[in-house]
Structure formats: C-alpha cells, structure tokens
Amino acid sequence: MKKKLLIAGGGYADIPLVLAAQKLGFYVITSGNNPLDMAHEYSDETCLADFSNNELMLQVAISLKIDAICPCANDFSAISCAYVAERMNLPGHDSYLLAQKIHHKDSYREFALKHSIPSPNAMGFIDPIKAVDNLKLFQFPVMVKPVDLTGGKGILKASSELEAKEAIKIAFEMSKTKRIVIEDFIEGTRHGFSAFIVDGKVAFNFLDNEHYFLNQYMVSAASTPSIVSSNVIAKLISYSEQIVHLMKLKDGIFHVQFILKDEQPIIIEICRRPPGDLYLNLVKLATSVDYSSYIIKAFTGGDCSELNQRNNEGFYSRHCIMADKAGTIDTVSIDTTVKSNIVKQYLWWHKGDEITEPLTHKLGIVFLKFNSLDEMLTKTNDMQNLIKVKVK
C-alpha cells in the first residue's frame, strides 16, 4: 500500500510537488480551502481545509491517517505542517516553536539581532499606540509589515510620521496574529538565495535576481544566474549554516530573500517551505536539479545525501503575466522580440475574465531562455511591456 502524503495546499505552485511525490510512490492528498485550485486536478485525493488553521489541519491529518505532510508555498502552511508533524510525530519538520520563530518577522528579527546576522534594524509591536510612540526611534523612510503575511501583503513604505501611522493601522488590520514590525528601509538590489540543507550544511544553492512590477513588495519575475559575486554567496552560505546550527534545523529547503548593499547581503525573509510561482521549475530548468523531489524527500524523512551543487546551465527567467490596471481581459500580446525566448508557459487566463486586484492577479507564468546575461536582464526588466495584457 502506498504511503499517504498530505500537501497542505493545492494552488498551481504546488503542482510540481504533487507530481514529484507521485513519482516517488506516494498517494498524494491536496488540501487548501479553494476547490478551484489547480493542483487538485493532479492529486490522488482532495480534502478541503484551511491550512492556516492548525487544529483543523491536525484533525484532517489524523482522519486521513497520513504518513507525512508537506507545506505549500505559504508560511501559514509551513507553520501548520510543523504543528501537525510535532503532534503526530511525523518526519522532516522543525518544531512548531521554531517554525513560528523563522516565519514570523518580529521573532526572526529578534533572533538575527541577538546573533549578529545581517538584517534590518527592527522592532516588533502588539499595540498600535506603542508602535506610533516608538516611531521616534527610527529615521524615515521606514518599512511597516504584518509579521505573518507574504507576497507583499500589508507591506508599506512610510516617508513621514503621517504615512507611518496609516501604514501601522493597515498592517495591524491585515495581520492574523495582530503583530507588526517597523524596520529600517534598505536600499539595494533584491535577490533570492534558495539553499538545501543536508547534515547541517548547504549541499546546494541557487540564486536569482528579483524583478518587480506594480507591487514593489511582491516578486513578479526572477532571473538567473544572479549578478551577486562569489564572495556574497560565501557569506550567505555561512549565515545560513550559522542559523541552521543555532536553531538545530532539520534537513531540507532553506529559502532566503535578501537585499544586496555594498557587497553585504542583508537578510529580509527566511522560509522553510517551497517558494511560489513555480520557482521549483525555474531551479530545475536552470540547473537540471529536481528540486521538487528533494523537497518531498526531506519532508517525508527520505535520504537527500546524494544532492550536490550544480551551477546554472544557461540564462533563464520566470515571469508572472500581470495587467497594469483593473478591468476585463481582452488579449495578451507577446512581442516578436521575446517569442523565441519562451521555453515553457502555463496560462490560465480567459478572454472576459475580470481583474479586480491588479497588484496580485496573475494570468499565467512563462519561462524564458536567453543567450547572454545582458539579454536576460534587459528583457526581464522590460517583460511587462514585452508581454502585455490588454484590459477593457
């Protein structure tokens, strides 16, 4: 009989995980509370449940008699999976306490400050009045963030006390835990560092350049190889292994977002779950490493010892197709100068679909290959004009 794996999610970003798990011999059950999520079409069974609800996910896991659990591309899922794994004694997960410390911005900032790991100067708050009172301790501009949301949700840059007060109000309203952080604004280039930990060491790492569109706090495209130097990569590996050692983290994915300023990587976010928007496919396309399979192996207690470093085999980017305003989708046009670069595409838009939230609404994802670093960066930075969404 096949072992049962529950993937606490079911969005399009989880399709590579479902396929990898099935290839490894698991009976795969997807969750999440949206029956229209695309990964449900690929799983062996769907059991709808809100993956941000720890107790509900535990009840589902027990009733299904699962053998392992894997998070989707969402921090709430990572935390609930750690909760379930701890109570059911399932393999491959950090403790519930550590999962919260890593994925909640206030607790991670406190940890980083204590251990001299480069991170923005920050303070966490549970009281809006105290947050406003402590604005005097910062120099503007500042960043105001809910501690528990991803994808740029609730994040605002404030250049004055008035703007900061409004940002604090919004962040508290959006945070599920009703906690926020205020932190220094850091100017620099933004990147991802996706590492895989085996026996406390970084066995494999993959870097990208982040690109943004309307929403300056949600990545709309990623290109690779990264423009960062080998010296910066060495620092990131060192910081990652330091964190893994101090927290005694389990083997598996260790994904970092950082800002590069004056050859110093400043860590903004860490997560121990798969990145979103089919990032796993970008890693496989660029390096031939089956990242999804290793992630499944780690979360199910499998052996990942054969994984080793593989460098990029070309110039690639992953681009999310998005509109620049709300409206009804008419067409999506692709410029002739970029058509030949597209090597894979996943489209789910239809003519007549309504876009109400242009900051977050994605119509599809394309993967592109380029002939040089310059072509990759130039075209990726202009991709919103090269692949244009027309709305009425």
From TrEMBL:
MF-aspect GO terms: ATP binding; metal ion binding; phosphoribosylamine-glycine ligase activity
EC number(s) per entry: 6.3.4.13
Record-annotated ATP-grasp domain positions: 109-300
PROSITE patterns found in the cross-reference section: ATP_GRASP
Gene3D superfamilies assigned to the protein according to its UniProt record, in alphabetical order: 3.40.50.20, ATP-grasp fold, A domain (3.30.1490.20), ATP-grasp fold, B domain (3.30.470.20)
This protein's UniProt keywords: ATP-binding, Ligase, Nucleotide-binding
Tree of life domain: Bacteria
Pfam families from the UniProt entry: GARS_A (PF01071)
Protein name: Phosphoribosylamine--glycine ligase
